[in-house]
Write a structure and sequence with these properties.
Blueprint: H1 2-93, E1 94-95, E2 101-103, E3 106-110, H2 117-126, E4 130-131, H3 137-144, E5 150-155, E6 164-165, E7 185-187, E8 193-195, E9 198-201, E10 211-214, E11 221-227, E12 229-230
Parallel strand pairs: 5-11
Antiparallel strand pairs: 1-12, 2-3, 3-11, 4-11, 5-6, 5-9, 7-8, 9-10
Protein name: C-type lectin domain-containing protein
Pfam families: Lectin_C (PF00059)
Keywords: Disulfide bond, Lectin, Membrane, Transmembrane, Transmembrane helix
């Protein structure tokens, strides 16, 4: 009986030690979890603070960039303002004589009389201008809308087939009608002939295809061209 009682006492003591050991392990594990949770919370707070700091820095940089852009825009406007004022003043003071039409940097006079090519050019030169020279598709379209059948400053009178403008320049853009120039010739006297050596713009629904060569002694209206003029200011 004594042996049995002793054995039971030993088992009870062993179970007590196991319970105490399990409690200690649970406490240690709980403490470890608490410490780990505290570390995670601390790191999270620090991380959030760093993110907020980065966002604040980005916002400040964006504001500084916008301020610099605004300053640059204002400086550019201040720099360009005198140039714009000078350009507006220049454009305001560029004009054409009364009775002339302005297009880009040229003035155009549309005659109402009819004369030969040489007579027409003489009239233009008397006005400080010359027969119109076509330099671009835009000018061709504009001039074509000014009148129906008129002389332009183009001829091949001195060398057949070599068309030149009145300023001596060669053709760069051409707007001949289909089949033109045909350089038809007309009998004059003896063995001499008159050729179609002068160019006109004739009425057409196609403004980019309305040039025609005709005899220079044909009677037509004409268009003169001169550069725009500037008004003089007296201080």
């Amino acid at each position: 009986m004594f042996f049995i009682g002793t054995l039971a006492g030993c088992e009870a003591a062993s179970e007590g030690r196991q319970v105490r050991s399990g409690n200690a392990a649970a406490v240690g594990l709980g403490l470890l979890c608490f410490i780990l949770l505290a570390v995670i919370v601390g790191l999270s707070i620090k991380h959030n603070a760093e993110i907020q700091q980065i966002q604040n820095s980005y916002t400040n940089i964006t504001l500084e960039r916008d301020q610099l852009q605004t300053s640059y825009t204002n400086i550019t406007l201040e720099r360009d303002q005198p140039q714009k004022e000078a350009l507006n003043l220049l454009l305001h003071n560029i004009f054409c004589p009364p009775g002339w039409k302005k297009f880009m940097s040229s003035c155009y006079y549309i005659s109402i009389n009819m004369q030969t090519w040489d007579q027409s050019r003489m009239d233009c030169r008397g006005k400080g201008a010359d027969l119109v020279i076509i330099n671009s598709e835009e000018e061709q379209t504009f001039v074509s809308g000014l009148a129906r059948n008129f002389w332009i400053g183009l001829r091949d009178q001195y060398h057949q087939g070599q068309w030149k403008w009145v300023d001596g320049s060669s053709l760069t853009s051409q707007y001949w009608m289909k089949g033109e120039p045909n350089n038809s010739k007309y009998w004059k006297t003896g063995n001499t002939y008159i050729y179609e050596d002068c160019a006109q713009i004739t009425f057409s629904y196609y403004p980019l295809s309305n040039w025609k060569d005709v005899r220079c002694d044909t009677q037509l209206t004409w268009i003169c061209e001169m550069r725009t003029q500037c008004r003089e200011h007296h201080l």
